[in-house]
Design goal:
- The protein is an all-alpha fold.
- It has 2 domains: 1-53, Homeodomain-like (Arc Repressor Mutant, subunit A), CATH 1.10.10.60; 64-195, Orthogonal Bundle (Tetracycline Repressor, domain 2), CATH 1.10.357.10.
- It is built from 8 helices and no strands.
- It has helices at residues 7-28, 35-42, 56-81, 86-103, 105-112, 123-145, 153-172, 181-195.
- Helix 4 runs antiparallel to helix 8 (181-195).
- The longest helix is centred in the middle third of the chain and has 26 residues, at 56-81.
- The termini are far apart.
């Protein structure tokens, strides 16, 4: 008879399985990874993961939810703990974005380079994605409110997001020398900001 699992047991195994799944999903793609392979990565029987997750899509949703929340936490921390004006806070958020992506490439790849067609079936994933998206808009609202930039916060935030994402992906793909994504991101951010200053032609 299987032993009764405590909440700590469940949380511990789910965490270990998600860590293994994150690497395998990112390296091979979710379609190429089986539940048997995930179980083997942890040295457990093929049926063990089913005690904690419904199926592979359930695991993928949990991995991505965790990733989006960790990402949002990093950006929120950068915004909240940086002293100074909106410019300094905005720069800190941008640096935190690039740092997180380069330090957690598997997580980042699953978050932004992969979509799940059934995403709506996972409310926690939807909420984590919404939270992450808000971190890419809120610091821009600060800049607009302080008269540094002009425009729609959602649209401008998407511009900065696209610039950061492009820099990160180029470095992760080996198309930029290691360590240069952050410098390029700074340059792009300054160029975009110049064009969005109040009264800019």
């Amino acid at each position: 008879m299987p032993r009764v699992l405590t909440e700590t047991d469940v949380a511990d195994f789910r965490g270990r399985l998600c860590t293994a799944a994150e690497r395998l999903f990112a390296e091979r793609g979710p379609d190429a990874v089986t539940m048997r392979q995930l179980a083997a990565a942890l040295g457990v029987s093929p049926m063990t993961p089913y005690r904690y997750f419904q199926d592979k899509n359930d695991i993928l949703a949990a991995v991505r939810t965790n990733g989006f929340n960790r990402f949002a936490e990093a950006l929120e921390k950068a915004r909240d703990q940086t002293d100074g004006d909106a410019r300094r806070k905005g720069a800190a958020v941008g640096d935190a974005y690039v740092t997180f992506a380069l330090e957690h490439p598997h997580t980042y790849k699953l978050m932004f380079d992969l979509n799940q067609p059934d995403e709506g079936e996972y409310p926690e994933l939807v909420e984590a994605g919404r939270r992450a998206r808000a971190t890419l808009r809120d610091y821009v609202q600060d800049l607009i409110a302080n008269g540094v930039l002009a425009g729609d916060a959602e649209e401008v935030g998407t511009m900065f997001w696209a610039a950061a994402h492009g820099c990160v992906v180029l470095e992760l793909a080996g198309k930029l020398p290691p360590g240069t994504a952050k410098d390029l991101h700074h340059a792009l951010g300054q160029a975009i900001s110049r064009g969005l200053r109040p009264g800019a032609a």
